[in-house]
# Entry
Amino acid sequence: MIRRYVSPYKKYLAGSVLMNILSAVFNIFSFTLLIPVLKIIFQMEEHTYSFIPWGTGDFKEVLVNNFYWFVSNYMSVHGPIITLFVLAGLLIFMTALKTSCYFGSTAVMVPMRTGIVKDMRLQIYNKILSLPLGFFSQERKGDIIARMSGDVQEVENSITGSLDMIIKNPILIVFYIGTLIFISWKLTLFVLVFAPLMMWLMGVIGRNLKKRSAEAQALWSDTMSMVEETLGGLRIIKAFLAEKTMSKRFDKVTGAMKNKNTRVATRQALAHPVSEFLGTAMIAIVLCFGGYLIIKDDSFIDAPTFIFYMVILYSVIQPIKDLSKASYNIPKGLASMERIDKILNARNDIRESEGAKEIKSFEDSIRFEHVDFRYEKDGRQILSDIDFAIPKGKTIAIVGASGGGKSTMVDLIPRFYDVNAGRIVIDGTDIRDYKLDSLRSLMGNVNQEPILFNDTIFNNIAFGVEGATEEQVIEAAKIANAHDFIMEKEEGYQTNVGDRGCKLSGGQRQRISIARAVLKNPPILILDEATAALDTESERAVQEALERLMSNRTTIAIAHRLSTIKDADEIIVVDEGRIVERGRHEELIALGGYYRKLHDMQAL
# Structure
């Protein structure tokens, strides 16, 4: 799963492989120098060597012979002390090369690790931006945040953190085992009998780690969801004295997560001691077996070479342990990767048709032609046989009880959702045949809950409009009745509005939203109960701004307060997903039906 993110970083991967090969080679050569060093120290060398031309005998024998010939020749000229110092210096030099390459192999992977995590977060974020609104009505925001934060962090720690282990350790194991075979294939064959047993025992410990990690990450999502709900509902929690209730709920969720993480961490903690024990046991067994063979047959292998063999054997234990550690970490990361993929693989049903065309202007009308809509998750019918037209330049109001389908109806026009039956037509063309960007560019939205971003007033007004000038923003603010209160702020248009505009009043936030719609200058305006949440004074200021915004535009207004839509060119009355009445205000009052009932209730 992680492979798809590696492609842009292949050069780092190649650099790491090269550095690890060099590190293994230098390590082996540095240890090889131990043999003549030990022979000099213990004055064991009695054999006289002569140079053998290359290619005239067994490669291993010629290589070993010529190496000892060179050392003995050098020692005869310079003496054993100088030779010892030179060999020790070469050992230090080789070790310096080895550690430099080891550092290089790790350092070269850092841009790859951080790059993969950045690419992953960007891909998730872009996917979130592209998914239809229906997806988020079925998912908890806290769960999505958890996948983008906790799960991606787990992938970074578990998988990308193990990439250098996965690359480095197999290389070291191959080179070290190759060296062991070169020294003594018989002894190495005996060693290899224990390797599968060691790996099997490590696998037993790591079993079910992926499943338990997935459960732990799911509980992390529950935790983040509770935090998100608590932050959004603090006013209600405090008003209803529910702090203890919420604390108990949070304690229950975090307690379950603690228990699950404890089991996962305990299994992970077993990795090092078990691998340490198995590695030491293998060393001890080989030491006994090799020592027995040397005692019985001193021609089998000499003592310094056997010590060199044991050093290399011990060196191969560490990469095996690191590889087993990676085999524990990776299942945890894969569990998180599967949770991330549930977002990345989420289906987006809002697609552009082949050959979709641009719509650059709105010329005639919007038509709902026998439209039906139901939510995919529960199959509940929301709209049934909606059929009406919105001529250009007219103001159409949609009224009705809460939950009747009014907001869903207007959400179908910019294709936040797609109809299940019938169609919506703009200027004679099904909206599904238009490019999404060009369709939505025709529309401006002002919602009941103003949506502002934690940025300056200027940037909130200019949101989505490339290259907006200060003069254009100020003009839009004046039309929206926002300029005066903005200039009263110490920093004016550069004032930060806070999280979701918390530093502004409700009326001020709404007027900033209207200024944003003014600056976009859309031919079609959608007002979703834009004054429903305001006090009388704020409503008056906002209503004046809306009337300026609505002039010379096609407007679709959802309203609870019927007084705000008396002058609409047509009022559509919706009840339980159906149009039950339509007409002008006076006509509907005279009709004495559902609209009259709503009007009389508000007049009381």
